[in-house]
Amino acid sequence: QHRSGTWTCSKLTIEVDALEVAAEIYFNFDPSRGVGEFSEKEPEYREDVMSVLRYGFRPA
């Protein structure tokens, strides 16, 4: 979905060696309204994105 105005859009590339997955996701947020959203770059990344979110982020 196209966002404009006060939205900030970013793309994150996540690789988790322990899971042998890599995923690209978008994190879009509007700090003026206090809202945000995640979306996968492509539908084929969906399963890897869900695996990463279940696993959680770990410090390097």
What's the topology here?
Elements: E1 8-16, E2 21-30, E3 35-40, H1 46-55
Antiparallel strand pairs: 1-2, 2-3
How would you describe what is shown here?
- The chain has 60 residues and is of the alpha+beta class.
- The protein has one domain.
- 17% of the residues lie in helices and 42% in strands.
- The chain has 1 helix and 3 strands, in the order E-E-E-H.
- A 3-stranded antiparallel beta sheet has the order 1-2-3.
- A hairpin with a 4-residue loop joins strand 1 and strand 2.
- The longest helix is centred in the C-terminal third of the chain and has 10 residues.
- It is elongated.
Calculate the terminal CA-CA distance, rounded to whole Å.
32 Å
- Number of beta strands: 3
**What is the domain total for the residues?**
1
Percent of residues in helical segments?
10-25%
Q: Which strand order do you get reading across the main beta sheet? A: 1-2-3
**Secondary structure category:** alpha+beta
Summarize the model shown.
The chain is α+β, with helices and mostly antiparallel strands and 60 residues long. Helices cover 17% and strands 42% of the residues.
Which short descriptors sum up this protein?
3-stranded antiparallel sheet, alpha+beta, 1 helix, 3 strands, 60 residues, elongated
